[in-house]
Each structure stands twice: as C-alpha cells, then as structure tokens.
Amino acid sequence: MMGSTLPCKLSQILAMLCLLPAALAIADTPANAHWIAPTASKEAALGVFDFRKIISLKAAPEQFVVHVSADNRFQLYVNGKRVGEGPARGDLQHWRYEDFDIAPLLRKGDNVIAARVWNFGDQSPAAQISLRTGFLMWSTDDQESEFNSNASWQVRPEQAWRYESSGPLLHSLTGPDEIVDGSKYDWQWAQTDDAASWSSAVIIAAPEFAPGEAPAPATSDWMLVPDTLPAMESKPEMMGKVVRQEGVSAESFPEKSLTIAPHTHVSLLIDHGALTTAYPQLKISDGEGALIRLTYAEALYDDHGEKGNRNQIAGKHMDPRMMHDTFLPSGGAEVQTFEPLWWRTWRYLQVNVDTQDKPVTLHSLQARTSWYPFVERASFRSSNPDLEAIWRVGWRTARVNAHETYMDCPYWEQTQYIGDTRIEALVSYTMSGDDRLARQALVSFADSRLPSGLTQSSFPVHGVQIIPPFSLLWIGMIHDFWMYRPEAGTLVRELLPQTHDVLLHFEQLQRADGLLGKLPQNGFGLWNFLDWTKPYPIGAPPEDPDGGSVPLSLQLAAALQYEADLEDAYGDRTHAVNDRSDAARITTAVFAEAWDASVGLLADTPARTSFSEHANILGVLTGAIPRQRQSAVLQTILQNEHGGRAGSSTPALAPASYYFRFYLSRALDHAGMDDIYLQTLWPWHHMLDLGMTTWAEAPEPTRSDAHAWSSHPNYDLLTLVAGIRPDAPGFARVLIAPHLGNLKSLDATMPSPRGNIHVSYRLVGRNLDATIELPEGLEGRLKLGGREQQLHSGLQHLHFADTTDGMTDALLTSP
Predict the structure, then answer these.
(1) Which superfamily, per CATH, for 236-369?
(2) 10-159+185-226, what's its fold?
(3) 505-536 pLDDT per residue, tens
(4) Is-contact 472 432, C-beta < 8 A?
C-alpha cells in the first residue's frame, strides 16, 4: 500500500540461466522454516493479514536472498520499504515462490521484516487457486536464519479491509471490490515495534517441493516450484485528464491537489486516454467521515446500454455496477495513500467524493502500471498510416493481456485460455522475441490435463471447464513454439506423450468414416466452442443427429498434421505416418460428404443444411478443399463478409469473428492469396473509427473492449505483409515473402533467435527496391513475384524491374 520497490527480483536476472534446475536443488529446506498462518484452522482465512519479525543484525550483509510464497498473495517489506510481491499464479501441485535479495534494505541493528498476506476466499478470481491462508519465507544463505518463517513470527488481522461483490458476472471471475477504512488502518505497520496487537503465528505445514522431472505426488499442501518469470513491469504513469466534473472546479486535477469543502458531493470523470492495467494510487489528507469511491470502466454507456464511439462522453454514463473500490479517510493532516491489493483495468475512472463535517484534500491521483515486461523489438511502418495505428493498438492489446499468465481480457475474466493464448504467444515471439510467458502457458495447460486426456480450456483456474477443441489447439501451439524457438526440443519432447492422450480421446469419438461423432456438451462446463458467431448457439457449431461436425472434425485433422511434424522431429516415425493417414481420412471424408458442388462450398455437416466461413477456412487450411478450388472458396467468404453473394444460389455463411479471422489469414496464406490480406482488415479500421485503444472481443455490441485474441494483425503484418517467417523449425532459416497489396513502401523489423531481421521495400513506378538485413548466422530465401533469391547474413540490396510482368529482373548486390 505504501513504499517503493528497490531490490531486484532475482528470477528476472536468472530465469534465462536455468534457474529452475538450480532452484530445485534446494531440497534440504531449512528445518526451522515452515508455512505459518493466523490460525490453525484449515479453512481459508478470508481477509488481510500482516506478518512480521524484528531481527537484529550485527552488520548489514552484502547479499541476502530470501524465498517467499503465500496463499493467496503477499507484499514483502523490509524496514518499511516495499521489496516485491507474489506469488505468480499456479496450481497446488506447482505453487510458485519468488526470490529477492533484500540486502540493500537491511541495516546494522533492528530490522523489521513484514509481509502483507491476503486471501479473497470465495470471492477469489477464477484464475486464483487456493488451499488456505498461509505465508512462507526462508533463506538458503543461512540455513538456520532468523528470517525463516516459523512460530517466532508475529501476525495480526488487518481490520481496515473489507471485500464486497457488486457486479452480476464480473467479480465472480476477477475478484472483489475493496473497502478500506483509514481510521482502522495502522499506517506504520511495516516499520514500528508495537507488540500490543500482535500474536504468535501458527505453524501449519513444512514446505514441500515438486520434483524436477517426475510428476508431483498428490498432496494436501503446496508443492513448491520457483517462479521463472521476471517481475511484472511497474512504472508510474499519469492518470489522464478530467473530462467531466460535478460539484467542484477541477481542471488542474490530478496533476495538482484539489480540496473539497464539507458537505459536498463531487464526481470527477477521468479519461486515461487509453485502456490500461495498473494500481491506482490516491494520496489524501483530512476528510474525516468522507467516502471516496473509484469506479473503473473500459467505456461509458448511453441510455440504451451501448458504448458507441469510445472518445465521446456526451450523453453517456459510468455503469454503477462496474468494479469499484472505496476509501474511508481517517482525517488528520498526515497524507495517506490508498491503493487496492490487486491491479485494476480502466480507460475511464470516476472519482466520487462525499464529505461530512470536514474538508478533504486530494493531493494526487496516479497509476502504477502492472503487466509483463515485454520489450517491443519489432517495428512496422508503411505508406498507409492507418496500419501503424492498428499496430500500436494491437501491441497495447497484447500488453494489457499479459501478466503472470496470458489473459483473455483484463477487465472481465483475467483467465488464460488456450484459444487466446496461442495467438498471444505468436505475437510475443514476433513482437518481442520473449518466449518465457509462452513456455509457462504450454506447461500450465499440460498440468491441467484430466483423466480423459484433455486439457482444461483455461488454466490455472479453481474450477473445471473443458473445451475439447482447445486441447487440439494446444497441439498447434506446441507446433508454433517448435517453429519459432531454437531450443524447443526439450520441452516438446516432454509434452509430446501428453498430446498422444489428447488425440486418443478424439480417436475414440470418431465415426467409421473418420468424422467426429456426436460430441457430449452440457453448456459452458463441457463446451465444444468454436467461435462467437450468431448462428452458433453459445459458440458451438451445428451437428447432425450422429455428429459429423465439419469444423470440429477439421480441427482434429489439423492437430494430427501438426502432431505428425512433431513426431517426425522428436517421436516415432510410425506415429507420424499414422497421424497423416488419419488426417487424410478425415479430410477425404469431409469433402466427400459435406462438399456441396451446387454452391462450391463445404457445409457444416454432411446434412448440408448450414454453411459457415469456419468450415471452409479450415477446409482450405487442412487441404480438405482441393487446391484448385481454394481461391474461389475464399473469394466467396470475402464476398459474404460484405453482404454479397457469388450467385443467387450461394447461401449466407456464419461469419468468422475477430478471433477466427486469425485462421482466415492462415487460409489466405495457404492458398497463395496473401496480397489481398490488407483488404480483410476492415473490422480493425472500424474499431479505430470507434475510438478504441485496444481491440474488442467481438463486433458491437461487445462485452470486452480489450480481448487478446483480436491482436493477431500485428503477427500478420510481420509474417504476411512484411513476409518474415521461419523457413525451418527453430527459425534455423528465414523465408522473406512480402505481400504489399496496394502499399508503396514498407519498413519492418522482427526479432529472431539470432537477432533482428530488417526489411525495407520501396515501389517506384514499376520497379521495386528491397533492402534486407539478416543477423549473423541466419540465412534464407526471398520469394517475390514468382522468383526466388537466396539470402545470406548481413545487408543485401535487391532491385526488381517491371513488377507488373512478374519481376522480370532480379539483381542481388551486397555492401
């Protein structure tokens, strides 16, 4: 709640230096270190609890590393200064701990080591797994360290906090609103030696560590693993500007202080200018008896419940059911800082203040960002400035959805779903070159597997939801990792046997012809989700009485094709042959039973009563639709999107959402139609016209204004338009195959495992000049206008003359 982050989190430095094996080597946990709790009760203690110990040192050490964990979360302080927080989310068999070097904050004499621990109980976010309230700290620098948590530590409940849930759906997924009563809060809790209200902590368990290789044994306690991710990025940023005010003149707030008179109601609407994920920090003084409420929203609503243009506020209001936090100041001249325990998501923030007999001064309102510390190493500039706007909004969408896990959306769910995460991981590889969060996700989904062999649809979560097709997408995600990361082999070998179980589950559901039979579904718990599109009830495609779903069967075929590649590389060649054979059996049956020659499209089922873009996109991707027919099918899809029909007999197609258009892009690439990709970006241009600063979940009216699965244009601009992609597993070679469409110029950079790849294209009349620079050790080829040119490391200039005639001349020059 107060303080600054000074020491570094060691895993941020060591994660890429094999921290995991090193940390697992500390099997001999100090005998005097234990999990401690406020009470001996095995029930989760709902609330906020402060733990501390006062330790006297003869001299300050040069280095002193502590390992810290808690259930649900902790904030660690040394002598009143904030060290860090955690643990990163996991499950009970893989419970994270954090590493900190606290030596810079230690001093000769007495030192107060303090931790704030909280448990949201039955109001915990969906992604927060919990056993019971507890705290653990130990040091391997000193086996008998006084710092180790045990009964010598003190604990007390923090009486200032209360939780409340006010939204119909929101808070069951993202956690509760917080109410903090400043009059009950000890503002010096992490600094002073006041023994009156403290009691001895209760030992509840010895720490246990998950083994490095073998599956973790079943246990009722936390099986500890190190957090190999870096600390979340935490930087101060301005709140934005007041765009609406009631009860006071506040043009200079929040940059300058604002005093509100007694018996006054004030409402300030602040536009941050872009959607963010951050901890709001409000500094106040005086105000005894006042109530201050912060309400957070992605957008404002009109009287019809519609958002409209996000930049326009006239005639719109903040929905009072949105997430909010409340602070009750204690009064007095001392400045108090209010900050919620968990970060919030907003573009618009409303500050409501109701004073009683005393005035209150709002000294400042700032934000401290919280998201994964991705570094943008990619770049994209072109002759169309709108594409740069799409690029910027897409990157912000990816960033606000990346934390200790990937997330589908930061406001509504904050949950790591496979369908979203596959796209997010590809954006991470190509925009930043950082694969650590993707590795976490791949392993986390493996950890979620059920006895059926399927993964859960999202993980970590404290409930169970199964979307069987997402287990197939997980195999595709492993294949993506294999193509982009040179050191993928170890992890792929580890995961490959688990993919067998996924495919075996679906094999048992196949009909004799290879199509999937009738699939079980009971709503959102067991849910054959394909895409949010209106003709599909709850997003699941239609089936005949005996099954035969073409989109779901083709997702199985795609997974088998991916699996065959992985088996060739790391597994059993016989399995690879069988996988390709089974995939071919499915695609052959799909075309034989669901191709409607009268309309030139695949139907959703052999009954041929409904049609969708999805079935035909997947038909192109898997080769179920023969090569010579693919172009015509995709042209029909593009005409369908704009309300057109190829002919009077062409049926209306269930349209692909923002999410599934990722696979439309892959289909265009597969069919050699990349040059029309830029024409398919009209939904993103429309979202720009709506003033969106992150991409929405779905077309209007949409629930979520920041949904990760809609960020794939960043990936496509680099791989399809700039044309940079791996040409061999592990990015061992590169393929440069640009598709400029109507662009006159383009300049792009994309990171690869060996370094940045830079391309620049300039079209002058009928001539195209290209500059390509590859990092040392990387070679590849250029494909352009039907010609191929070998590429070498370093800088190369290429000139293509008379581009209207198939690039009749190509000249390679080196510096």
Answers:
(1) Galactose-binding domain-like (2.60.120.260)
(2) Jelly Rolls (2.60.120)
(3) 999 999 999 999 999 999 899 999 999 998 89
(4) no
